[in-house]
Amino acid sequence: MIEQNLILILVALPFFAALINATLNVSAHRAAAWSSGLSLGAGLLILLALMPPLTEQGILRSVVQWVPSVRLNLSFRLDWFSWSFTFLVLFIGILVVVYARFYLDKTDPVPRFYSFLMAFTGAMVGVLTSGNILMLVVFWELTSLTSFLLIGYWYQNQSARDGARMALVVTGSGGLCLLVGMLVIGQIVGSYDLDRVLGSGALITSHPLYPVALVLFLLGAFTKSAQFPFHFWLPGAMAAPTPVSSFLHSATMVKAGVFLLIRFQPALGGTDLWFWLVCGTGMATLTIGAVIGLFRHDLKGLLAYSTISHLGLITALAGMGSPLAIAAAVFHIANHAIFKASLFMMAGIVDHETGTRDMRRLSGLRRLMPVTAVLAILGSAAMAGVPLLSGFLSKEMFLAETLAGYDDSLFDQALPVIATVASLFSAAYSLRLVHAVFFGPEATDLPKTPHEPPHWMRLPVELLVCLSVLIGVIPALTIEPWVNLAAGSIIGPAFEGVHIAIWHGFNTALLMSVIALGGGAALYLLTAKAIEAGPEGPPLLHRLRAQKIYERILLEGTWKIPRLVYQSIGTERLQPQIRMLMLMAVIAGLYSLWGVLQFSPVPRMHDMNPAFALMWVVGAACAAGAAVQAKYHRFAAVILLGGAGLVTCVTFAWLSAPDLAVTQLLVEIVTTVLLLLGLRWLPKRNEEIPEDKEVQAKARRLRDFIIAAFAGLGLALISYALMTRPLIPNIGDWFLRNAYYEGGGTNTVNVILVDFRAFDTFGEITVLAIVGLTVYALLRRFRPAPESAVLPAQQGPFVAEALKDYLTIPALIMRWMFPVLMLVAAYFFFRGHDLPGGGFSAGVTMAIAFLLQYIAHNVRWVESRLVVLPIRWMGFGLLIAGAAGVGAWLFGYPFLTAHARYIDVPLIGKVPAASAMIFDTGVFALVMGATVLMLIAIAHQSLRSARRREQTGEAEKDTNARKEIV
Q1: Which residues contact 837 (CB under 8 A, 6 or more apart)?
Q2: Which pTM value belongs to this model?
Q3: Strand 72-78, strand 60-67: pairing
Q4: Which position among 114, 538, 693, 744 has the lowest Cβ density within 10 Å, counted as fewest Cβ atoms?
């Protein structure tokens, strides 16, 4: 049990740190760094604590029930592969936190940066530890969203916004493909549990839908890991701060794709299709990235394309799929994370201390930054695959695997040649990085005078380089055990292990390494001057850029083509849009019911009551009158709408639905008053529009009337057909039988809302919160027409003074009603589980109490006496409702599970109590807050208008004064 809790804490810790950082003051740089570092350090300690049980059991699982009826649970799974990857993420994350503390400027909103960074780390840990493939996709898309925030952290830069948007579009689209692929795989296997999927390789690969599932799966993995032809988004992401680049492009985001390929290789691999698609894409990316990287002049751009190239290497190994290839892929994931993180940090140091990343301007920095130069040389040597460094060992294993032979095809035979050529270019761009930046004559036109960075900023680079050297010198003691454990958890018991040593004798792989290193050095020495003077990109191909192709496709697909379609069939007017929606609804209804719904004679269960029929005639007349009066007489239309709503309310009560009747009445009061307040600020319409009398306008109105009448009549007929038939057993019967015994309440409607379907209610109040905030934001920016800003004729100076006297008694009564309505709200709230009422009704009632005060007095009078803070009410309401759901987890039950029992209250006795009341409290707070927020947004328009009238009056006085002077 403790292992399960530790895994949950491991996943939750980064999100908790993100929440803490988001609440810190913008100047709390040190506090944000400490909270982030401590959460990651605690995660490492948890991983170390899980080692003994993981060694004993092989796989650790933690399951939290979510929706057990449909087998959808929060499932986490930890084996040695995910353990090693998570350890790598957290370890490098701590170094990035330390590095960022000294890299970011004092004027930057550092807590926000750390909040995004921790949220991204949590999403990445979720990807690595997910035990359910659908939950994996959720965390997968969360990494795309949080990386968008990180890449666009410096949002004031156009390049950062473009890079963030590009990364989100590409990886987010790939995530949608991955989702569909996972759904297909789940249907093939019959389960979304990761263990069952990984153990069903033969079933998946033999299924007719295997090619479809594989292509969708690979689109998700390739877009995330920047594989050709989706590689272009990664260089654009270099506009992010260097700590982001060193984290996302070394151990986290781009590695998620190759993690997925290696993780699912036992289930999806082992076929010719897998080999050709995965290995072919990997080798193409390896070569293209290496070639382009050599010709990039931006230091981070070179490292970005080298990242693309090395990701292609890992992808190719996953495509080969042999046990040694999987071990080599796992090994190179760790190696690349170590030396690439150090090189990105080094690039950030150079940029931070010199003011530029252009290698054509950088030169001779070894004299001014000797320690940084040594670190860069060692990191670049590891990237090139120089002996006695970590990169040499995993690249040797890769070269050996290209010689192994797989299907004896021409591509299979060409693998060693492609690998050698790509390694040659890798050595060339590594040499260029070192030589162009740190050797040669000392640069003279740099924006800043170069010097060594602060010790703590350089310390993460030193640790990573030392680790790279240690792995390269003593691999058997440092990395070999972890590689074997991780690879064994992927391949299974059949894996015999791999021995990683510095020297394996003279063999073909060593010869390929020598050719690559020597050829790379020669290539750079021969082309150094030409590269320096040439454009940014390979000769003849520098004009062909995937990023420009993407931007052209995006422009055509999201702007030009939609604009053409819009110009052909679209309109900005609301009425044609509603007309189209109504026609589509009518057509859909006719299509689905044609030949199915029959109006056969049925026995009448009740006689028609004349009073009920007369009431509906009145309601229909109100609705029709509202439609007729809406254009020129808005006030009358709103009143008539209220009449139709009141008829609906009475209908609910007549048909024994008191809960609906109470809710309808309260909502009708609030919406009618809010609409009346809103009408005050709409432009006046005193004269008829001449065009309304033309034949074309009358024909349009007749057409709209026919459509509306047809839709209304159709809905009425369907309702009549259903309501006059005998009842059949349905889900409502189950709710009626179990409301008291399962939910602890006799008010079935309320029990459904806060217990049986509480998750739906939670989503609905979340939407209500979003709507409330949106209305508030829009009305804050709303400025009424000048003709609406002046006082209406009905509120002239004399009338306004008279109204103060006329409203004295009503205002006093409405003021007295405030505590009365508070009691009514409490009454509705506490009786809601057994009698009509509940949190929603209580919240609306409480909002009406505030509404009356705003009607009786002016805004300043109310807000000087009542501190409402509706946004806080909304926030606390949402938190309380969420906490009520999370609290069920503490007792081992699914989210939002409620509990009811009788409790003894002194002097009263036994009274019913349900935990759903906590959830209902959140509903009450949010509904009240959202309604009052919209009321305040409308009411504050009067303050703005008064201020505008004062400014206009002062301006007129100044103008008159000038005229008198003249």
Answers
A1: 659, 662, 747, 750, 827, 828, 829, 830, 831
A2: 0.76
A3: antiparallel
A4: 693
